[in-house]
Amino acid sequence: MTNRRPPPKITPSYLENAALHYLERFASSRANLVRVLMRKADRSIAHWGGEREDAAHLAEAVAAKLAALGYLDDGAYAEAKVRSLRRKGASTRLIKATLAAKGVEAEAAHGAMAEEEDGRFELVGAGVVGRRAPLVAAVGVASAAVLLTCMLTSLGYAALGMDLAGCLAAGSGWAATGLAFVGLTAVTAQVASTARGCAGLTMGALGVLFLVRAVADAGTNAPGWLGWLSPVGWTSRADAFGSDRTWVVLLGVAALAAGVAIAVVLLERRDLGAGLLPARRGRGRAGRTLTGPVGLSWRLGRASVIGWTTGMFVGGLVVGSLAESAMDMFDDPAIADLLRRMGGDAGLLSDVYLTTELGFIAVVATAYGIIAVLRWRSEETAGHTEQVLVTATSRTRYAAGHLFVVVLGTTVLLTALGVGTALADASGGGSLGGLGRVLPAALVRLPAVWVCVGVAVAALGWLPRWTAAIGWGVLAFSVLVGEFGGVFGLPQWLMNLAPFTHVPRMPVEAFGWAPTGGLLAAAAALTGLGLVGWRRRDIG
User: Considering the domain boundaries, does residue 527 fall inside one?
Assistant: First the structure.
């Protein structure tokens, strides 16, 4: 009987040779290769001794080196595995489980990136259309939405009897900014690997461009051309109801064309479903915060909360920085009358300006809340909810985790809006009255936001397939009727159906406990109704 040959000692060269030998015979993901190497390391450590942690570092280093050299590609491995399993008739759930077992991490994305990850772009690209078609379609739809919105805004101003040239200049300024950011987003969509990364890059660019605009507006020694570099400032450079620079829209068209041209070049240099910047790998072990549904929900929505909060803070800075210059526009009786009808019948024009602008931007917090509810729905349709509910987690606890993130996120967003507005206004003279007046005027809109979110939760509980349509429909109705009902002379009974109609328009009006309590009760009732339906229906 011969003695069994002892396993080799663990060295970097041995692990690298073992990895190459394995990859010559099998396709593998990075995580799976590390597991294979660690099995060899465990046998060596059992015989020769040593630290398993040191071997794990060596195995990770070898995998990272081979990935950098192109021997490992999780994206290509996953695509090949999916095609193989599809040919065998495997279900979507089985494919996801197989990829997870092989160490391939699935990342949820939305919008254009979700189309790629769902395989629809690849399906379309296999037809008679080219690879650029999804990009061109997305840019076309976004540009059309920007132009339509700005055109309707100009027509609305004109319908109120305001100067036509000024109306066109106002719409042109907004269109220039919107088209520029469509081009910017087209570029960031090629750079990032996920929709979340794309949003983060775009929000970061927005912050930089706003700082450029702030330096140009506030700096007495800043060159005049500096303000033209930032698309954020093109709305004011249009000088609506002044010199009426309608031609500013051409800057947006040029920026859009440049962005699309760059995006097309980048599109040809990246793989389908991936970005130029690789996705960051997560930690090997979950932290303590992921042991419960609240921590899981927060982890899923954390990046969104941070990104949206940054955007709301920037929006507040814009509102506060324009407060002083907005006072000059009130010399036009038509504009002053418009703001009074939208913001309240009485009060200082600075207060009317504040409540009107905060009312507009507070709608963004409502949009975030609805998106958070839709994320809850997407987790369900993707099969992730079932994986959580098979544990000791109850449906109520799981729902409470998502609702916690919604309530926290909307509160943080409106707080950032109020703080940003107060800070920018203080640096420009403090015409709005400081944080003590601005912050309550922003937070008083929370109950109306929660009512809209409650409608979306009720739809999720009883009509899950219609959650998106009902949620966005309620938001659109609330904005059109609640914010513009007085302008268009809509009947009061119809305006009373919109939650934002009942918000105390602070600081024009005093805070009211009755309307605020009524909105909170309605939000709680709608959310409770949705939870009842959520607990009774099937998942999926």
Answer: no
